From TrEMBL, chain A:
Taxonomic placement: Bacteria, Pseudomonadati, Pseudomonadota, Alphaproteobacteria, Hyphomicrobiales
The protein's name: Branched-chain amino acid ABC transporter permease
Localization annotation: Cell membrane
Pfam family, one: BPD_transp_2
Source organism of this protein record: Zhengella mangrovi
Keyword Repeat applies: no
UniProt keyword annotation of S-adenosyl-L-methionine present: no
């Protein structure tokens, strides 16, 4: 065979390889597009269906989804294991409720103030805790802070109402004529929280800051020798993630019309970590998928909340054993393999 | 003008002195080696220069600025970047992602432009671009470590035993990469246990034994130096003994 014809064969092979490759690219893009379309439809359903029940369930799922998304920034991207997310959620709820009811501030001013308080508290806890590599200090200190916050909420009767909790009798003031006093308005508010946290995480993920966080998650020492200020980055991620939790907490108060120290319970954070593991930690859609399964599925299957933790426990064990990257992690990996020319489904061992 | 100056640096761990009153100056644009038998204090010296460890005494100057107390990320910001023994890359991230992270300091910063702008093409990484770095052949992994250091906009590289455990062919490739980086304008200081690797590569060699500089000069002159022969033979004799 002459050199010329050999080249021709190679070019032909290359051409026949690119054609299905491009097809597969398009199919993968289509799958992603369909996924986000399904998300949009789900998000719109409670409003379009106009059912009080769906609005209630949707509100709770949206709030928990927002919490999971904001925790994923810290746990999934920066790789920092803090268990104070529920505490900052509660802090935001209490701080804003007190600022509105006791100090008489408008809700929309109380929200940024509550976030600022959370950010300052997070910086004070985070600075000593994040100086060390490995995460034990962070986990212990943030756990201790959460318990401390819960005990303060439960025992400082004069300020917080103690273990009986606090009734919340206000709604956020209307914005541009859009009222938040009805179930649909409150659902829109919760959905807005979800979209805002998603937008923030997406911006971070695509920024230099986000890439620095991933570098720290993968190898702190190498990251610092490449010029990344590891402590400052970890601290920024912790402060940002905690301030987002507080923001979500501020809307929780008027939605539930009641807040109690149970809100700050560490179980809330542990459940959120479970949601992240289930959905796929460190993936963009993982927290949404995890939330939908953990908070949505039991609701629609009419399973009492008592069994929810049992089901979650079993699911998490199965996920950790079979698909350690979580549901979104597996989907992403499968699609990536498919894009490179492997079959979409096979019994080959994952990971 | 010297880019890096080490002045009377010592490092003691309890009763052990790992580095003893070392003074070395590396000129701008130099391609130098640092050799010595096992335990001579080579890596400790690099750890001190890169900020991994604080010396017990003495100081480090980079571009005439005292950096002795600066943290590693600040030194990297100034343009002094090290690589690690073996290859330290982000094993779960792809080459593309790793290089993108490494451009953290230089991206959008005109004064820190990397000397080689398109390392992906010039280092021949394109065909591996989307593979996780942990799955690369070890020679390519070492090259990636150097490429990442370059991408930060480094002006001086400290390479810690880059050739250890590589095949002859990989060693040749690595030497070519180091020469290429040096020719592009980066000052390079290489630790190597293996004399042969350095002989054809560097213009000057500093020899460390028991924490002190025992010789400093052209590679050819070094190999004939009785103190160097003594240090290496002594080490070998011990190994056989």
């Amino acid at each position: 065979m002459s050199v010329k014809s050999e080249t021709a064969v190679m070019i032909n092979e290359a051409a026949s390889e690119t054609a299905p490759g491009e097809n597969r690219n398009r199919i993968v893009q289509l799958v992603f597009a369909l996924g986000w379309l399904a998300f949009a439809v789900l998000l719109a359903t409670p409003i379009l269906a106009d059912s009080r029940y769906l609005l209630h369930v949707g509100t709770m799922i949206a709030l928990h989804g927002a919490l999971a998304v904001s925790l994923n920034l810290l746990l999934g991207y920066a790789g920092q294991f803090a268990i104070s997310h529920g505490a900052f959620y509660g802090l935001g709820a209490y701080a804003s409720a007190l600022l509105v009811t006791s100090a008489g501030l408008p809700f929309w001013l109380a929200m940024p103030l509550a976030m600022l308080i959370a950010a300052i508290v997070a910086a004070i806890i985070g600075y000593p805790a994040l100086r060390y590599t490995g995460g034990v200090h962070l986990a212990l200190l943030t756990f201790a802070f959460g318990e401390l916050a819960r005990l303060i909420a439960a025992n400082w009767d004069g300020l917080t109402g103690g273990p009986m909790g606090l009734r919340v009798l206000y709604f956020p003031e209307p914005v541009l004529g859009f009222a938040f006093s009805k179930a649909s308005g409150l659902y829109a508010l919760a959905a807005a929280m979800l979209l805002v946290t998603m937008a923030i995480v997406l911006l971070v993920k695509r920024s230099r800051f986000g890439r620095g966080l991933v570098a720290i998650r993968e190898d702190e020492v190498l990251a610092s020798f490449l010029g990344i200020n590891v402590l400052r980055y970890k601290l920024a991620a912790y402060v940002l993630s905690s301030a987002m939790a507080a923001m979500i907490g501020t809307v929780y108060a008027p939605i539930m019309t009641f807040i109690s120290p149970e809100l700050l319970n560490v179980h809330e954070t542990i459940s959120l970590i479970g949601v992240l593991i289930l959905g796929g930690i460190g993936t963009f859609s993982g927290p949404l998928i995890g939330t939908l399964i953990f908070y949505g599925l039991p609701e629609f299957l009419r399973i009492a909340s008592f069994y929810r933790l049992v089901i979650l426990g079993v699911l998490i064990i199965l996920v950790v054993l079979l698909v350690p990257k979580g549901i979104a992690g597996v989907i992403r990996q499968r699609l990536e393999m498919y894009r490179r020319g492997y079959p979409l489904f096979s019994w080959r061992k994952l990971s | 003008m010297s880019l890096l100056r080490i002045e009377d640096v010592s490092m003691r761990f309890g009763g052990l002195t790992a580095v003893r009153d070392v003074s070395v100056a590396i000129p701008k644009g130099g391609l130098c080696g640092l050799i010595g038998p096992n335990g001579a204090g080579k890596t400790t010296l690099f750890n001190i220069v890169s900020g991994f460890q604080r010396p017990s005494g003495g100081r480090i100057l980079f571009e005439d600025r005292d950096i002795t107390a600066l943290e590693p990320h600040r030194r990297a910001e100034l343009g002094l970047v090290r690589t690690f023994q073996g290859a330290r890359v982000f094993p779960r991230l792809t080459i593309r992602e790793g290089l993108q992270i490494a451009r953290h300091l230089s991206d959008g910063n005109a004064t820190r432009r990397p000397v080689i702008d398109d390392v992906m093409a010039e280092f021949g990484f394109a065909k591996y671009a989307d593979e996780p770095a942990g799955s690369l052949p070890s020679g390519v992994m070492r090259e990636l470590g150097i490429a990442m250091a370059i991408s930060t906009g480094a002006r001086m590289l400290l390479l810690d035993e880059p050739a250890a455990g590589l095949s002859a062919e990989e060693v040749t490739n690595l030497q070519r990469v180091i020469r290429h980086v040096h020719a592009a304008g980066v000052t390079v200081w290489v630790i190597e246990h293996n004399l042969n690797f350095l002989m054809g590569l560097v213009e000057r060699c500093i020899v460390l034994d028991a924490g002190a500089v025992i010789a400093d000069g052209e590679p050819r002159a070094i190999t004939g130096d009785p103190r160097v022969i003594e240090a290496y033979l002594g080490d070998d004799a011990h190994a056989f003994g």
